[in-house]
Structures are given as structure tokens and as C-alpha cells.
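Lab notes, practical 5.
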Amino acid sequence: MKAAIFDLDGTLVDSMGLWESLAGNYLLSIGIKPPKDLNSALSKLTVDEGILYLKKRFNLKATIEEINQSLEEILTDYYKNRIQLKPYVREILEKFKSKNIIMALATATDEHFVSMVLDRHKIRKYFKFIQTSKSVGLSKSQPEFFQIAIERLGLQAKEIWVFEDALHCMVSAKECGLNIVAVEDKWAFDDLKKIKEISDIYIEDFSQLEVEKLWKNY
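Output from the prediction step:
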């Protein structure tokens, strides 16, 4: 193992509850009861794609800019002030650094929100680069997203491990030949069986990760 690509939400930070409730809470605030399939419909979309989806599906009078502003206010508060690291994240980043393992962050979340939480928890220093869906114009469901990260690292796919909580991201990463560590997140339990099948390693939290074994044997 020479490099690690970390997802952010649901992997390094405990934020999926916010994303699961964000669109529904917005709809409730304007008097619309969110349908049961809302989260599944939005799960693979970026924020910008999700806003467009909401406007079209619910025929919202608000402009794209107004919807975005409402969601931005909620997200800013959480990423700047509330979202916490998942257990043992800081320890695992420090261990990787001690082994000279290159680390990158690859996320669907916009970089200004990413920066808020990284700076608040003082962990930006661990990452060689931050790659977002917006910065490359691709969703994490597209293998090309991960191929760009591989090229930026300058390594072979087999030398890189991806740390993810979401099944659709694991699928596209696997298509690029990357190794997968699935990090448990309760919001992904519906896909748990498939996640365990596709991942090379499954952990409940980072205390279970055998860093020495990964570093020496892979």
C-alpha cells in the first residue's frame, strides 16, 4: 500500500444524517411533505444535481439560486460548527503519515464545506490534494472520477486503497482496479450485504484497521 483515497462524509466524518434529512427538511420548510423515495432518488446526485431535481420534481417556484442559498445556510452551520470526526480518524491519519503513505480526499461535497470541517478539526495537512465532484465535473458513480485521482497520485491502482462507506462509489472504484476498505456507516445498512461482497476489507471503525499489515503486504 502506497496511497489512500479517503471519502469524507460517512467515512471520515459523521455527517450522513445531515445529508439524509437535508432535502426533506427543506421541503417541509416550504410546506411540502417529502415522499418516501426522496433519499434514494438523491443518493447518487451532487448538490447541484439534487437542487435541479427538487425544482423539477416538485415544480418549485423558488429559483435554483434561492434553493441553493437555503441549503447552503444549513450546510454551512453544520460543516463549520457541528460535524464531528468518526472514531479513531485522527489516529489512523497519523499512522498513515508515519508510514509515508500518501493520502488524498475524494468527495462529492463541495470544497468550501470540506475546508470548513478539515480546518475545524485541523486535519487538512494530511492530504496531498482534495478532489471533488465539482472540481472534475464527474460524480463518484463514474469510474473516471477515480481514474483522475489515480493519475494525480502517479501510482498503479493496485498500490492504492480507497476508504468508502457508499456502495455506488465502491463499485466505480473497483472498476478502476482499486482496493476497497468499506467503513461502516449506519446510513448505508440497506446495502450492507453488497458492500461486504465488493469490499476487500470491512471495518466497523478505524480501530479495526491493521495498518501494519496493509503497509507491508499490499
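Observations recorded by the TA: The chain has a mean pLDDT of 94. The radius of gyration is 17 Å.
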